[in-house]
Write a structure and sequence with these properties.
mainly beta, DNA Polymerase III, Chain A, domain 2, Proliferating Cell Nuclear Antigen, 12% helix, elongated, DNA sliding clamp PCNA, DNA replication, Pr_cel_nuc_antig_C, DNA_clamp_sf
Length: 223
């Protein structure tokens, strides 16, 4: 099951993929695309208790998504119907991309770097070569940078892998990256993929599937 969402400015895209074998029960007779308001879905999910199981159900050509919450001991069952949205397209703009730089590093470390550098300005430059990945900012109050070198530590909270086929340097909005970094609670590692003039990809893998964010680069005059 895949969930896709894009922000209103079409700058950021998120794709959540959940593996069917990780569900207690999963049945999908034929491919189906549903348009769902994330805000409204979030409101209904908050009704569920911490120990409740959640069932999602939609019929063919569905106009509603049916959510059923069952208590741990089946002492309580709640059911809601969420009205679906009409989609302009069934899939958002996710395309297969060959990246010139692939960096795998501790997710908490990447989050800390973004938070610290956001104190100076709202745009970060990420540059990578075969020896190092550099995170840099420059603003009205000054400048700063953090350089990370590869290492083969056995500890996931320290290990850093850098694979680069050509030098790449791009600018991104820190506001979005700091929002994406909330996913660090799902995975010890984040995989960062870069190529000139295409969106950066941040991937977090966890037991149930993977969460991938895409963010368009900032052009030089907007940096």
């Amino acid at each position: 099951m895949t969930i896709q969402a894009m922000d209103a400015s079409h700058v950021a895209l998120v794709v959540l993929s959940l593996r069917s074998e990780k569900f207690e029960e999963y049945r999908c007779d034929r491919p189906q695309t549903l348009g769902i308001s994330i805000g409204n879905l979030s409101k209904l999910v908050k009704v569920a208790g911490n120990d409740d199981s959640i069932s999602l159900r939609a019929d063919d050509e569905a106009r509603v998504l049916i959510l059923t919450f069952r208590g741990k001991n089946s002492e309580r069952t709640s059911e809601f119907q969420l009205n679906l949205l009409t989609l302009e397209s069934e899939h958002l703009g996710v395309i297969d991309q060959e990246y010139v730089a692939e960096i795998t590093m501790p997710s908490l470390e990447f989050g800390r770097i973004c938070r610290e550098l956001a104190q100076i300005t709202d745009t970060i430059t990420i540059a990578a070569d075969k020896e190092i990945v550099n995170f840099a900012v420059s603003g009205d109050i000054g400048s700063g940078s953090v350089a990370i070198k590869p290492n083969d530590s056995d500890k996931p909270d320290e290990k850093c892998i850098i694979k680069v086929s050509e030098l790449v340097s791009m600018n991104f909005a820190l506001r979005y990256l700091n929002l994406f970094n909330k996913a660090s609670m799902l995975s010890n590692e984040v995989s960062i993929s870069l190529s000139p003039e295409v969106p950066i990809s941040l991937q977090y893998e966890f037991e149930l599937g993977e969460l991938r964010y895409y963010l368009a680069p900032k052009i030089a005059e907007d940096a």
